[in-house]
Design a protein that fits this description.
Elements (H helix, E strand, L loop, with lengths): L1 H13 L1 E3 L7 E12 L14 H12 L5 H6 L6 H9 L12 H7 L1 H20 L1 H8 L5 H6 L1 E2 L5 E2 L1 H11 L7 E3 L15 E9 L2 E12 L3 H19 L3 E15 L3 H8 L8 E4 L14 E4 L14
Parallel strand pairs: 7-8
Antiparallel strand pairs: 1-2, 2-8, 3-4, 5-6, 6-7, 9-10
Helix pairs in contact: 1-11, 2-10, 5-6, 6-7
């Protein structure tokens, strides 16, 4: 994962200081590309522990076309909680403590962070126990899963982009149209968070499947390690169904940034030596990408450095 560490160094040394939507502030570069040969090992970061189980459960959530955090919370995956929580605390139904700019404030105030966590725990409890609450506040709008599996057409129909691409890879592997987009201009304003990893293209050559992702906005410390692992896993799953080997994952970034409140953590990470990459294990009994469950996907030989905690910018 030297490519990732080189990106971190590049941003710290050459990035420009920019404001951002969250009010946190970043150092940023524009236009950057990394390439990962998936035959050399699964590209999960080893300079800090990255929760592969969360990568898996989120990707399966996308694959099922789901857009409600209830499914993730049931799987003990809380990486999307903040965006659904924000919807609740900004609503008329919320009567608790003031949560304005809760992400930024919690990062600076340990006492307020505890208050936020109490309200977040209450929110998750209500999501799991109250169906009407989950339907209203758990749904994130037409985010990734909706666009991948049910892109709406003008005549009221939907397009299953993912299934269509898999079928085309099987019957017409040399096509240059193996494309899935999550960026739907007609529905961006309805999404809790507009797609960051927005556009992917698959490529078949010499019996190997490669994937290139264009990511418009890249939180390099927290988000990008997940994105690399998620799309590498997606490439493996599609390759398996299509009876192909894996080739490269090509990761093209638009605005690649480090938040200013992550700089100490990045410095710690850069002081660590990368370790050997793990190997991905998939259940051979599963034929279709749509049949996989969390227990069908595992890693072998993952020996990372300890986790490095950092606040998420909402």
């Amino acid at each position: 994962m030297e490519q990732y560490l080189t990106l971190c160094k590049h941003i710290m040394n050459s990035g420009v200081t920019k404001g951002d939507r969250t009010g946190t502030g970043t150092k940023s570069v524009f236009g950057y590309q990394m390439r990962f040969d998936l035959s050399e090992g699964f590209p999960l970061l080893t300079t800090k522990k990255t929760a592969f189980r969360l990568v898996v459960s989120e990707l399966l959530w996308f694959l099922k076309g789901d857009t409600n955090v209830k499914t993730l919370i049931q799987a003990n995956n809380h990486i999307w909680d903040e965006w659904a929580f924000e919807k609740w605390v900004n609503s008329e139904e919320y009567t608790g403590p003031d949560m304005t700019n809760f992400g930024v404030r919690a990062a600076k105030d340990p006492e307020f962070k505890n208050v936020v966590q109490q309200q977040m725990d209450l929110f998750c409890e209500k999501i799991l126990s109250e169906d009407a609450f989950a339907e209203e506040f758990g749904d994130l709008g037409p985010v990734y899963g909706r666009q991948w599996r049910s892109w709406p057409t003008m005549d009221g129909q939907t397009i299953d982009q993912l299934r269509n691409v898999i079928e085309q890879i099987k019957v017409n592997p040399d096509s240059r149209r193996h494309i899935i987009t999550a960026w739907n201009p007609a529905e961006v304003d309805e999404m809790a968070l507009p797609p960051c990893h927005a556009f992917m293209q698959f490529y078949v050559a010499n019996g190997k499947l490669s994937c290139q992702l264009y990511q418009r906005s890249a939180d390099v410390f927290l988000g990008v390690p997940f994105n690399i692992a998620s799309y590498a896993l997606l490439t493996h799953l599609i390759a398996k169904e299509c009876h192909l080997e894996v080739g490269e994952f090509v990761h093209t970034l638009g605005d690649a940034h480090l938040y200013v409140n992550h700089m100490e953590q990045v410095t710690t990470q850069l002081e660590r030596e990368p370790r050997a990459l793990p190997q991905l294990l998939l259940n051979d009994q599963k034929e279709s990408i749509f049949d996989f469950e969390i227990e069908d996907i595992a890693l072998e030989g993952y020996d990372p450095h300890p986790r490095i905690k950092a606040p998420i910018a909402v």
